[in-house]
Design a protein that fits this description.
209 residues, 14 strands, 49% strand
Length: 209
Amino acid sequence: MPIARLLKFAPILMLGTLACSGDGSDPMGPGVEVGEDSLPPAGTAYHGDSSHRFMGGSAVLTCSSHGTFTSSIEPPTTIDTARSDYFATFVGQLVLEPPLVASPVTHPLSLQVHMAELITLAGTEGTTRTFDAELATFELGGTTAPAGVMVRESPSVASTGRTTITALSGGGYHVETYYDVWLELSLDGGGTWQLADNAVHMTLGPPKH
């Protein structure tokens, strides 16, 4: 069967790595200290606290990776929404269980994920700026994708989040970001889509090595 590829995204602005692991103990995550005022900050990664489950667990998408983003955008200074488009590396697996398949099968994944974030200034208090955020695009593609498999951010359920940037007295910034990510899965090349049973809480932190 043919390999599924996804080409929905806007022009690429950055390249990085997505890491899906974490304990979910802090809604905002540990955050990072960085030298530049940018989003997402260079030298950071996103981490998820669980796996995406579909159709009662008949399909489970997990990922595990490490790395950094190599470019970013300046945070908006007005109420206008800024858009950040970029690629990241998705390394993990998709597990399919009966009745989707005759017997359980695990598909290793090493794919490009194309993401787009919408960032809007919500307010400023002291040295801290708060931004409303939405993960507008999250799609997987690549030559190692299982035949017919496609993954996208849900067009019907928003993956919303928040970012705070605090200027530090000694210089630099402390940045915290989270998203609650809703994905959809297709097993027939985009003919039909299944919304995940759960959102995955994704936070910004140092890259895992």
